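Appendix B, example 12.
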Amino acid sequence: MGGGHAHVAVLADWIENGPPPGARATLLTPHPALRYSGMVPGWMVGDHERLRGIVDCAGLAGRAGVELVLARASAIDPDARAITTDAGERIGFDLASLDVGGTGHAAATLGEDPRLIEIRPIERFVERLAQWRAELLAADPAPFVRAAVIGGGAGGVELAFAMRNLAGLETRPEVTLVAGSAGLVPTMSRAVRRKVASELARQEIAVVAQDARFGEGTLRAGKIALEPFDIVLAALGSAAPDWPSEGGLATDPAGFIAVDAFQRSISHPHVFAVGDVAARQDREVPHSGVHAVFAGPKLAANLRAALADRAVSERYRPRFNSLYLLSTGNGAAIASYGPLAARGRWVAMLKRWIDLRWIDTYAGLAGSA
């Protein structure tokens, strides 16, 4: 279930090494392609086309001998070993793996507003932002844009830079980043926070270190009204979908599927889960695409072992430090690696090389290169 970052690695394993003997698999996903979120800011500023940052899940499934069902999982019965799709179809399984991502919770956190566009799910975000930009560019003359970005994590920071440098506009949008009470990139080092703050100031992006909420059509931070805004983008992290816990899978207090070191459900070992929908119980693994990418090959090995009735043995152990590359939207990027930080065009070149290498690897396997 889900064509996420880890499951494309499973499909790649089946293409490169052949499907597990006797296995018949179905990939259930609402989209035939995976939108790589790391390249969305680059699309926003015009560094590459919209279709450049996708992985052809349909092509990978075809090459791997996996049946593709374009639908979304809406319920699971792990005891009866069956799932139900949003179209009402019931699909049985002996072994299940979930890489469906988390859900957005911006509206629940901030309140409803027609200007609000949430980054999750990423495909819906891209569709809505593309439509909004097309309508903006069709106006004559194009109006001056005031944008708010909610969320001070890496995703919110990159969105703020991307909106400030949004492609196609004669006048750069005025951007306010409402980072929240936790501040800018709170999980990163002091050196990174200083570089992010410096770059935001350099690009004249206002920063508000208070939590935001809509009230009577007005975006407020604390008691301060922040209006006017034409568009509000939110990057507040992910929430857990309801249906895994409703189906009886063990979850953590936030509702994410509780898994062991091998990505198996602690209540139903024939169910695996990885990525934003899962929560490791043996150690803390942040919800981040980089961890889903590196967990993918481990998941592939464990699924292969489980299908052969062998003991699973592969654990994803996050590196002591992970490399994060934050695009600043103006041809540069900020690197974060543990306590170290760097900024420059060379960082943006490194990010582009890593992103395109990952995308192109799967494009070659899918036959779409």
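The CA atoms of residues 325 and 351 lie 6 Å apart. The chain has ten helices and 22 strands.
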